Amino acid sequence: MDVQQTIFEKIANDTVSEAVVAQIEQLILNGVLKGGQKLPSERDLAELMEVSRPKVRDAIKVLEDRQLLKVRHGEGTFVAPLTGTALAPAMVDLISRHSGAFYDYLEFRREVEGYAAFMAAQRATAEDDQILGRLIGEMEAAHSNPDPAEEASIDVIFHAAVVDAAHNSILGHIMASIYELMRKGIFYNREFLYRRTDGRDLLLHQHKAIAEGIVKRDPEAAGAAAEAHMDFVRNSFSLGDSENTRRNSARKRLLLLDGLGLADMPATRKRRE
Q1: pLDDT one-digit tens code per residue, 186-214
Q2: What residues have CB less than 8 Å from 83, skipping those under 6 apart?
C-alpha cells in the first residue's frame, strides 16, 4: 500500500471541509507532515478521504490562509516551513564565535535529549520502534564506509526520530529547528566526531544504547544513554579545542624558530651572555 494512503483517513462528518482541515492540521501538529513536504494532489486526497474535490479545495484554501500550506502553481501543495530558526542569524553567528555559548548549546541539547529519550521510552509505539531499528540498521550499514558523511547524516535523522517518539508536539517542532542547524553544520562539523580515533565505533554504540533503552521501555536507561552521548560530544570538542590551542602555540614557536634561527632565541642569547 502507498505510504500516503496510510496517513489520510476517510471523512465521516457533516462539515466535510472542516474535517479535512482538522485532519491535515493534526498531521502537521503531530509532526507526521513536516515543513516542505508535498501533499497528494486534490484528486488523490479526495479519493483517500472519500470526499469531493471541491471540499478538498476549500480545505486547502483555509489552510493556505492560515499559512500552514503553500500552493505552488504547476508544482503542487506543500506544508509551509513552520519551525523557522531557533535563533536569529546574528545570534547563530555570535554563538559560533564564542566557545562558551557553543558549550551552552551542547548543555541545552544534553538536557532536552535526555528528557526526550526518557519520555520516548514511556510513549513510543511499535511503529516508533521500527523507525529507530531501521535507522540503527542504516547506521550499521554506513559504518563500514570509509567516508563517515552518510553515517553522520543519519545521526541527525536518528536524534529527530527519538524526539518524535516522545510524542510531544511542541518539543518536536522546537527541536526540529535545532536539528536543522545541526544538519547544516552551523555550530560544528559532525564529521569531526566521526573522524576521531574510535569515534565512529563509540558513536554507533551510544546511538544503539539510546534506541535499546527506548525499545525496552526503560526510561532511566534511555535518558542516561542520551545524556552520556551528549557528554561524549562535549568532551570531544573540549579535547579538540585544547589540542588546537596547543598546536597553535607550537606552530607559533616553530615559526619564531624558523624566522630567528636558534642563535637568536632568547634562551640561547642568555647562555652566551
Answers
A1: 666 666 777 776 889 999 999 999 999 99
A2: 35, 173, 174, 176, 177, 180
Beta bridge partners of 78: 38, 70
C-beta of residue 7 within 8 angstroms of C-beta of residue 45 = no
Chain centroid offset of residue 82 CA: 15
In whole angstroms, what is the distance from residue 177 CA to residue 108 CA? 14
Which run of H or of E encompasses 70? Answer: strand 69-72
| C-alpha cell read off for 241 | 579545542
Q: What is the pLDDT of residues 85-119, one digit of tens each?
A: 666 677 777 777 777 788 888 999 999 999 999 99
pTM for the structure as a whole: 0.68
145, pLDDT greater than 80: yes
d(C-alpha 120, C-alpha 4), whole Å: 25
Q: Which three cell numbers stand for residue 1?
A: 500500500
User: At residue 265, does pLDDT exceed 60?
Assistant: no
We find that the CATH architecture of domain 3-79 is Orthogonal Bundle (1.10)
CA-wise closest residue to 213 among 201, 200, 228, 233: 228
Task: Please state which architecture CATH assigns to domain 89-235.
Answer: Up-down Bundle (1.20)
- For the four alpha carbons of 239, 186, 144 and 118, in that order, the dihedral sign comes to positive
